[in-house]
Amino acid sequence: MANLVSSWARNVDTVPENYVMPPNKRPSELVSIGSNIPVIDLAKVSSSTINHAGAGLVQEILKASQEFGLFQIINHGISEKLMDDVMDLFNEIFDMSVEEKEKFCSEVSNKSCKVYESGKMNDANVEEVRHWKDLFIQPVFPIEEQTQHWLENPARYRELVETYSSEVKKLSMRILELIGEGLGLKEGYFEELSKRQALVVNHYPPCPDPSLAMGVPAHCDPNLITFLQQQVYGLQILKDGHWIGVPTLPYAFVVNIGYQLQIISNNKLVSSEHRVVTNLKTGRTSIGTFVSPAEDCIVEPTKVLVNGGSPALFRTFKYQEFIDDYMGEKNHKKTLEAYKLQP
């Protein structure tokens, strides 16, 4: 538990040796904030007309998912107060004493929500150099299977997390319906592919030398789709061989296309490669909602997009198989490649 960065970072003025990245993996100082990263305004469509949205909005989302694998959404309907309350809640959790956090440490807690030391999620991903973050994971849906194992303190935790997660679930289904409409899929196509949802909260304390450390290394998300709430800059994506910064928009959600959507769309959509850098003066907490298929769900390119002129590019598999391979492979790109059908 003493390895939690949030437990000691404020007491150091240099980056410990085991957090110093090799020179070829350190963040570049020349990364600029991207001004062309798509921003989707959901005020253009109401929930009552979500399945008959204007073609312009659907095409905006589809284009963003094809070219960037990432976009931001504004005017999404989730209240600013709720977003503030949940961010305050998780900042409070990371500010707890070592003794309090130890109660739900990954190695001792019987709770479904756990806090992990950097680089300690599983043996395959333990590296000699650690990343400058702590990680909190809370499975959310199916909610009836999870709530009895949730934290009891802070007292507002259960009500806030359930309310927030339910609202983000509704939002995720709205976005998936719009993506499905753009791909020509039937209404409700993604319902069976989005049965699991988890909160993944990363906390990055201020770092004494951001040029040496890394919050999260470059990767693509393995799940279906991710919704990220952030207040402080740190997220960067790889576009055309160059890293660009994702601007922080007040009360927006960053939407990441995951590998499963790339596979289901038969490569018509792409998963964004992204990373997180650290900050000298300001800590950063990001709240990610990961939407995924159930473990035994069958995933394959949708038959709507597969025909004689456009053959399936990926094999059929169970989601659990993909996740096991992803978590056991440091180079996540190799995981996706292993599921491609040979021409």
Automatic annotation (TrEMBL):
An annotated GO BP = response to molecule of fungal origin
Where in the numbering of this chain does the Fe2OG dioxygenase domain appear? 194-293
SUPFAM superfamilies, alphabetized: Clavaminate synthase-like
> Which InterPro entries does its entry note?
DIOX_N (IPR026992), IPNS-like_FE2OG_OXY (IPR044861), IPNS-like_sf (IPR027443), Oxoglu/Fe-dep_dioxygenase_dom (IPR005123), Plant_2OG-oxidoreductases (IPR050295)
A Pfam cross-reference name: 2OG-FeII_Oxy
UniProt similarity note = Belongs to the iron/ascorbate-dependent oxidoreductase family.
Which PANTHER family has this protein been placed in? OXOGLUTARATE/IRON-DEPENDENT DIOXYGENASE
| The protein, known as | Fe2OG dioxygenase domain-containing protein
State the organism of origin: Anisodus tanguticus
